[in-house]
Write a structure and sequence with these properties.
InterPro entries: Beta_helix, PbH1, Pectin_lyas_fold, Pectin_lyase_fold/virulence. With 677 residues, the protein is mainly beta. Helices cover 7% and strands 35% of the residues.
């Protein structure tokens, strides 16, 4: 009865139909009725609509036992490598969709209006006694502690978990304990006598490039202290540690705010004004799945034109001390031991972790023309943080291209737009990354000079902008870490980066960065510097344009007994007249054939030296001080005027009669196809 029919079978006339001239045919009324009955049976009894011989269309109403998983499995069992098309509608996942070797060669394609959701709906809202305007709904199933709700949605929009203060943070000069539970001292003016142990009260904090989130395990009213179970990290202490409270009933003071009460397994919510009474409250959805899709030990699987929404992530029940780049957080779409698979023209949004996650043993995966936004952690993570000794476990040769990644870091503030861990030969190109509290692209996961499997990665033609805020420090538009022979960062457009205290750097070679080429990038309006090297070896920085970056342009933090980097044929423009910052005393760095210009009155400075004294040290012997004649200083990617000294003196693209050297900086094509919008 549940049969798959070809397009030919569906449209063919019955055998007893007589076709006459003039495209008319005559047939008995009984036969016509039989045809109509047959077509009706096909429409009602065949949930797998046939489009063509190699494609099946499915709908939410026609799923096998209401399950997308079972429906897909049934199709590929009959026809391996099938193309399956989702009709418009919502596809709810109560379990992670798993695609394995039996799905090899399969394509899952969405239609406009088809949405895959990983959430459940709450409908049975009741007023909370003694709290006007608050409503409560119990989750329909027990929730493991590590999957406590972090994201809930109202009419498809993300709602904020209640917090105090509503914006910003509180400050303490207390040094937080690094060898045991933290006893956080709360000033009298911020102490809340209504706090209760076991209610799920959370303390969140930010420290330099990350922070922590801890569930309060003890409340001492007499001492006005809160016990936090996890020790703080010593080297991330700030002069004034910043923190705030979340998930307390008394924090709810604005429409749309919510908390989760673990003891009752319930969500408390203050509806928006238009929601009215409980009977009029629109649907509220809660994300509980750890992943929406896992492609595991599969090859040549294509996910295309899909809209993935609403996924949770695993969080420790007692809270967590954040690690750099939210490295512990996994993704909503996971590839594990996968080969030659593709995710394209798709959207991933409203998830608690990373959007896409390329895990152990995954190679030749393509992520193309996707839109990732409203993410608890970052956009795309590639590889693992731990080096795998077995070569078959390593992750390599993947491509992330043409994607738009924005509004990430909503839970894990230190997450990254695209991060490459211990992985090689990946290409990150033509992406647009913006509107987040931390770095845009990060490559490498080794601190110091120890050899790692991270090498020959290409980061090119990306547009990275408007990142950072007053929340975190120590970040980069493109952040690099550890030895990376063969890695190239080129033709990226990076601008408008901010930070809390330090570290809004456009190009950032951090601890041990070695053997990296950074060329032909445009960096503008970064709060601290256009290029910064903490420490590293034999990096080459050439033909980059650095314009109006806070401290002046270039920073070198640590002097070592080897060549730090070569800085040549670069153009540095600023308003401060101070081009180089921090440590430049030893001679283990090479600078030459650069152009410097400032609107500030002379004398200009390179470190502590004026120009003549700087050149006497052997630096910038063939460099010049001149106006580079930018076409538009506010849009430096537009390049230089044709008579610019950059062409005559620095040799930028000297063979072109009408050079436009920066025209191809940034993405080369449309960021997101119409299928994913």
């Amino acid at each position: 009865m549940w049969q798959r029919l070809s397009a030919t079978q569906v449209v063919s006339a019955p055998k007893n139909t007589r076709v006459l001239e003039g495209s008319r045919y005559q047939t008995p009324v009984s036969d016509i009725c039989q045809i109509l009955v047959t077509l009706l049976a096909i429409a009602v009894l065949t949930p797998l609509e046939s489009l063509a011989a190699d494609a099946s269309r499915i709908s939410p109403e026609g799923l096998v036992e209401g399950s997308l998983q079972k429906t897909i499995d049934r199709i590929v069992a009959k026809e391996p490598g099938a193309t399956i098309i989702l009709s418009p509608g919502e596809y709810r996942l109560d379990k992670t969709l798993k695609l394995t070797a039996k799905h090899n060669g399969m394509t899952l394609r969405g239609s406009p209006g088809s949405i895959i959701r990983g959430s459940i709906s709450l409908h049975d809202w009741k007023p909370v006694a003694g709290h006007d305007g608050l409503w409560q709904a119990t989750l329909p199933m027990p929730v493991p502690a590590h999957l406590s709700p972090r994201l809930i949605f109202h009419d498809g929009k993300l709602l904020a978990r209640a917090r105090t203060p509503d914006a910003g943070w509180l400050e303490t000069e207390q040094t937080l304990q690094t060898n045991g539970p933290i006893q956080l001292e709360i000033p009298q003016e911020h102490w809340n006598s209504a706090w209760q142990e076991g209610s799920g009260l959370v303390v969140r904090a930010v420290q330099k490039w990350a922070g922590f989130e801890q569930v309060v395990t003890g409340i001492d009213t007499r001492q006005r202290t809160l016990t936090l179970p996890l020790a703080a990290i010593g080297h991330r202490q700030e002069k004034k540690n910043r923190f705030w409270f979340e998930n307390s009933l008394t924090d709810i003071n604005r429409e749309g705010e919510w908390i989760y009460r673990p003891a009752e397994n319930a969500i408390l919510w203050k509806p928006l004004a238009q929601a009215g009474s409980s009977s009029a409250i629109p649907r509220v959805d809660v994300s509980l799945l750890e992943a929406l899709v896992v492609v595991d030990h599969a090859e040549n699987v294509t996910l295309e034109g899909l809209d993935f929404r609403e996924c949770g992530s695993s969080f420790s029940a007692q809270g967590e001390i954040d690690v750099q780049a939210a490295a512990k957080r996994r993704g909503a779409i996971q590839f594990r031991w996968a080969r030659h698979c593709t995710l394209k023209n798709s959207t991933v949004s409203l998830v608690a972790g990373y959007g896409v996650d390329l895990q152990t043993g995954s190679n030749s995966i393509r992520i193309e023309n996707c839109r990732l936004h409203n993410l608890g952690a970052g956009g795309i993570r590639i590889g693992e943080a731990v080096i795998a000794p077995e070569s078959e476990k390593q992750v390599s040769r993947n491509i992330v291209s043409g994607c738009q990644i924005s509004r990430y870091g909503n839970i894990d503030f230190g997450a990254v737009g695209v991060i490459v861990f211990q992985s090689s030969e990946n290409r990150i190109s033509d992406n647009t990354i913006f509107d987040a509290p931390y770095s845009g692209i990060s490559v490498g996961w080794t601190w110091g000079y120890k050899e790692s499997p991270c090498h020959h990665n290409i980061v090119e033609h990306n547009h990275i902008h408007h990142l950072g805020s007053d929340l975190l420090s120590d970040m980069g538009g493109v952040y690099l870490l550890g030895p990376q022979p063969g890695t190239i960062v080129r033709k990226n457009l990076i601008h408008d980066l901010k930070c809390h205290e330090y570290g809004a750097w456009g190009l950032y070679t951090d601890e041990g960065s070695t053997g990296i080429l950074l060329e032909e990038n445009v960096v503008a309006r970064c709060m601290k510097a256009g290029f910064h090297q903490h420490y590293g070896k034999d990096n080459i920085i050439r033909r980059n344009l650095i314009v109006d970056c806070g401290e002046g342009g270039v920073r070198r933090s640590k002097e070592e007994e080897h060549n730090s980097f070569t800085f040549e044929q670069n153009v540095v423009v600023n308003t401060t007249g101070h081009f180089l910052h921090s440590n430049w005393k030893n001679r283990n760095v090479q600078l030459n054939k650069n152009l410097y210009f400032s609107n500030a009155p002379q004398p200009w400075r390179w470190g502590m030296w004026k120009w003549a004294a700087w050149q006497e040290l052997g630096y910038d012997k063939d460099s010049l001080l001149a106006d580079p004649l930018l076409v538009d200083r506010s849009q430096p990617q537009q390049g230089f005027q044709i008579n610019s000294p950059v062409y005559r003196e620095l040799g930028w693209w000297p063979d072109r009669s009408q050079p436009r050297p920066l025209a191809d900086t940034g993405p080369r094509s449309a960021v997101v196809s119409s299928a994913s919008q």
